[in-house]
Amino acid sequence: MKNYIEETANYLKEKGFDLPEVGIILGTGLGQLINHLEIIKEVSYNHIPYFPTATVEFHKGKLIFGKLEGKKVIVMQGRFHIYEGYTLQDVTYPVRIMNQLGIKALLVSNAAGAINLNFKKGELMLIEDHINLQGSSPLAFKGVGSLGVRFADMSQPYDAQINATIETIAKNHNITLHKGVYASVVGPQLETRAEYRMLKIIGADAVGMSTVPEIIVANHLGLKAAAVSVLTDECDPEHLEPVNIDEIIAMAQKAEPDMITIFKELIKQL
């Protein structure tokens, strides 16, 4: 994998991806941050050597390099999931590339369902901790020790200083921002009533199908990391209704301006 990483990074350097400071992964329905970016270069995933290709229809599939609030950033417009048939190594390959290019911090967004019924759809949740329910680890492969810390410490996977800054930004802009635990499942099916009850029992406040693998690899590589969930639905097992994916996307887009405000102000201060 080391050779692949170097080849991919060299390709992007030749394309003008020059010493980015921050990497950003945009989640489902959360692509409008691009409109605030001074774009310098963009490359479709299917043109990048060894890069996976997004197969979900509402994920764009571009790696974008530009400036946001005076900082050089790389933005993933569209991310990868294991429910698309990718391995956890595939899913996290872009994090390794962004690290190779020079980022110092990784910011992640996602759309998630609210397990904690005090949280309402259309609100945001700052991830304080997570539960990995995806059945494996992106670090579980031969030779991982040559790429970063094999036994990565996960006692504080989300950077405390960045999280504190995000909380302050939300307060200053009157944005409702909850704090909680994110559970990452395989998907793509949504959860049953029994599964929602289980998630609540084990301490999850929200559930989704992404983010945790990328955060694990960020910690393995020594990158500061933070993640914000846009809560798109309320997962009440006692009053569960069929989920409409279009409604979830619409709710993500409705809440997105608050997330963009947080990310822009945060990048200004990093």
UniProtKB/TrEMBL annotation:
It comes from the Bacteria. Keywords: Glycosyltransferase, Transferase. The keyword Glycosyltransferase applies. Pfam families: PNP_UDP_1 (PF01048). Residues 22-268 form the Nucleoside phosphorylase domain. GO terms for biological process: nucleoside metabolic process. Its EC number is 2.4.2.1. GO terms for molecular function: purine-nucleoside phosphorylase activity. Gene3D superfamilies: Nucleoside phosphorylase domain. CDD domains: PNP-EcPNPII_like (cd09009). GO terms for cellular component: cytoplasm. PANTHER family: METHYLTHIOADENOSINE/PURINE NUCLEOSIDE PHOSPHORYLASE (PTHR11904), PURINE NUCLEOSIDE PHOSPHORYLASE-RELATED (PTHR11904:SF9). The purine nucleoside phosphorylases catalyze the phosphorolytic breakdown of the N-glycosidic bond in the beta-(deoxy)ribonucleoside molecules, with the formation of the corresponding free purine bases and pentose-1-phosphate. Belongs to the PNP/MTAP phosphorylase family. This is Purine nucleoside phosphorylase. It comes from Paucihalobacter ruber.
